[in-house]
Amino acid sequence: MSLDALEERIDKAVGTITQLKKDRDQLEGENARLKGQLETLNKKIKSMEDKGGDLASLQDENRQLKGSQEELKSKLENIIGKLEKLQQ
């Protein structure tokens, strides 16, 4: 193998290594960006899950209050009925 051919192969190898380093740097940057996006999305999911739990809790409380409201309505109707009988 001639010295010129060896030099050419070395130059190609250096070029390939340089390109690989550039590609690696780009991929590391992309990886860091994607990790940040993933962290942000995980925080949003957690927040939505918390809000979903709060919503379920509020819905349960609302059902209980409606039940209490119906119970009070029934009692008031009963009392009003008794008062009307007393007035007659």
TrEMBL record:
<dbReference type="GO" id="GO:0005737">
    <property type="term" value="C:cytoplasm"/>
</dbReference>
<dbReference type="GO" id="GO:0090529">
    <property type="term" value="P:cell septum assembly"/>
</dbReference>
<keyword id="KW-0175">Coiled coil</keyword>
<protein>
    <recommendedName>
        <fullName>Cell division protein ZapB</fullName>
    </recommendedName>
</protein>
<feature type="coiled-coil region">
    <location>
        <begin position="3"/>
        <end position="78"/>
    </location>
</feature>
<dbReference type="GO" id="GO:0043093">
    <property type="term" value="P:FtsZ-dependent cytokinesis"/>
</dbReference>
<dbReference type="Pfam" id="PF06005">
    <property type="entry name" value="ZapB"/>
</dbReference>
<dbReference type="InterPro" id="IPR009252">
    <property type="entry name" value="Cell_div_ZapB"/>
</dbReference>
